[in-house]
Specification:
binds 1-O-pyrophosphono-5-O-phosphono-alpha-D-ribofuranose, binds uracil, globular, binds magnesium ion, 6 helices, Rossmann fold, eight-stranded mixed beta sheet, alpha/beta, two-stranded antiparallel sheet
């Protein structure tokens, strides 16, 4: 039996494990191999909305004067840099849906990456980012951080486009991937619902959820 681990002391800094009970419950339902694709997608969307709260917790606000039906008051509104959500195709689309529910004004970019099944290197096949991404905080979305090769490549593309403020959101991270991403991009914080035990010989996260893209789109 493989239990997920949260060896917080051994992890690189800049990792936020969002261990809210609602998220943990929904993640358990997603992990079950018999959970069908339609339920899997819905659970991922719900968890993504909850992760959106955590990854935006440090967004600055400023005060503005408004009129309520009873009086005028100083009230907070969002201030500072705008956001760009960057979905790593294919599986990032599963997180993007939920994030856009909470952050409807965000711009959206896409990075198409697949893992070479033998070398586990990330192979890029698509890139489309908003022109003004350098003026935004980018939140890169991908459910799985396994070897970390895809995440590191996605962050490199976003930085190459001029973005200096980057965060990474996933559902499950492996310790190996957290280290690879931190070594390549120590300035990028990672928000994850779980840190699992290890990678298997094929680079899959154990216990994990299997192939996220296949489970979202029912392709296996
Ligand atoms: O950390 P890594 O070892 O790079 O693995 C993680 C990547 O693997 C999965 O994508 P996959 O290559 O299966 O593509 P898909 O989303 O099109 O299925 C996942 O969505 C990540 O992008
Ligand atoms: O466990 C894993 C590892 C990489 N990609 C996935 O979709 N799942
Ligand atoms: Mg896949």
């Amino acid at each position: 039996m493989n239990a997920p681990t949260s060896p917080k002391a051994a992890l690189p800094p800049n990792i936020v494990v969002v261990d809210h009970p609602l998220i943990q419950h929904k993640l358990t339902l997603m992990r079950r191999s018999r959970t069908p694709a339609n339920e899997f997608r819905l659970l991922l969307r719900e968890i993504s909305m909850l992760l959106a709260y955590e990854v935006t917790r440090d967004m600055p606000t400023e005060m503005t004067e408004i009129e309520t039906p009873l009086t005028t008051m100083q009230a907070p509104i969002l201030a500072g840099k705008k956001l760009c959500l960057v979905s790593v195709l294919r599986a990032g689309g599963g997180i993007l849906e939920g994030m856009l529910e909470i952050l409807p004004a965000a711009r959206v970019g896409h990075v198409g990456l697949y893992r070479d099944p033998v070398s586990l290197a990330a192979v890029e096949y698509y890139l489309k980012l908003p022109r003004d991404i350098s003026e935004r905080t980018a939140i890169i979305l991908d459910p799985m951080l396994a070897t970390g090769n895809s995440a590191a490549a996605a962050v490199s593309e976003v930085k190459a486009a001029g973005c200096q403020s980057v965060k990474f959101v996933c559902l499950i991270a492996a310790p190996e991937g957290l280290k690879t991403l931190h070594d390549a991009h120590p300035d990028v914080p990672v928000y994850t619902a779980a840190v699992d035990s290890h990678l298997n010989d094929h680079g899959y996260i154990v216990p994990g959820i299997g192939d996220a893209g296949d489970r979202i789109f029912g392709t296996k």
